[in-house]
Amino acid sequence: MDRFERxxxxxxxxxxxxxxxxxxxxxxxxxxxxxxxLAGAGAVAAERAGWETPPGEYYEMETDMTEFEED
Length: 71
What we know:
By secondary structure, the chain is an all-alpha fold.
């Protein structure tokens, strides 16, 4: 039973220790999540306000196709 108690005490000690690397990673993940949530909320608000992108603005490309034309 003594061995079990030592394992339990060691496990409790590990969970109570402060790990700055864990909290730094958690803070970065939370920041990324909040930025993406804010961008999504902004996109929804812009669409509801009628600030939609005109059709084809991002999809029309001016490309010189003369090199692919056959004579």
